[in-house]
Amino acid sequence: MGEEAACNMTLMPLKVPHFVLVHGIGGGSWCWYKIRCLMENSGYKVSCIDLKGSGIDRSDAKTILTFDEYNKPFTEFMSSLPNDEKVILVGHSAGGLSLTDATHKFGKKIRLAIYLGATMLKNGFCTEQDVKDGVPDLSEYGDVHELGFGLGPDQPPTSALIKKEFQRKIAYQLSPQEDSTLAAMLLRPGPIKALVSARFEEGMIDSDEVPRVYIRTTQDRVVKPEQQEEMVKRWPPAEVYVLESDHSPFFSAPFLLFGLLVKAAASVGIY
Asked: What is the rounded average pLDDT for all residues in the chain?
């Protein structure tokens, strides 16, 4: 190889890793503001998704009745990516369902799927065990939900939002007060009927071919540690990391979370 060719190869820019961040129920792309700032200041490319009825999407959650409808913004985003681009997905809480759906449909576009205190079920909610492991049980706190009835008052609820007086205690107990205040201003009802309808069929690529990492949130009062442990046991990822945080580590432990995301990305050879 000539000296000039070697020099040109040296000057070729490395492809910047592209992280795609997916929020949990009731949240929005705003949840990631600290992580996005840390990542972009470190030179990473970041995309944050608002699922239907979330963030700045003005759809009414109680009228969203299927998972495909709820997940459509993310599906459209993944479809729009060039076929030669591979992204790193990060899904928080119920956002894990979006990641799993993507591993079935867009596996060739995913370098790594990172589940952050998230629902990680290979085929979605197909069995009673799936529901036990993947659906938060907040009954110990009493009547904590404001419910929406999109199909009428005599039908099961179609949306839910944790009441303001319970939000900090349940989801943000270790987070800065200003972040739980921000969340109280921005949280919206989530389409619970649509979420529990999530079921996934294998696509062109086996979902097991997509590398997965699970980040356990040890002080989580929503997706409880025992639920996380059971999901990891039933569908083992390549790596499991542990983070001392509440359900919202993007608020309570942003620097530690950022470090784990970079570590996870490095494990699949992005550099």
From this structure: 94
Q: Which amino acid is at 87?
A: V
Residue type at 51 in one-letter notation: L
- Bridge-based pairing state of the strands 110-116 and 212-217: parallel
pLDDT above 70 for 264:
yes
Strands 18-22 and 45-49: parallel
Is this prediction's pTM over 0.70? Answer: yes
DSSP 110: E
What is the set of active-site residues? Answer: 93, 220, 247
**If DSSP codes are grouped into helix, strand and coil, which group holds residue 232?**
helix
26 backbone φψ class: left, alpha, beta (φ>0; ψ -120 to 50): left
> 3-state SS of 179-231?
HHHHHHHHCCCECHHHHHCCECCCCCCCHHHCCEEEEEECCCCCCCHHHHHHH
* Spatial distance between the Cα atoms of 161 and 191, rounded to a whole number of angstroms: 9
- What share of the chain has pLDDT > 90, as a percent? 89
Distance CA 224, CA 231 (A): 11
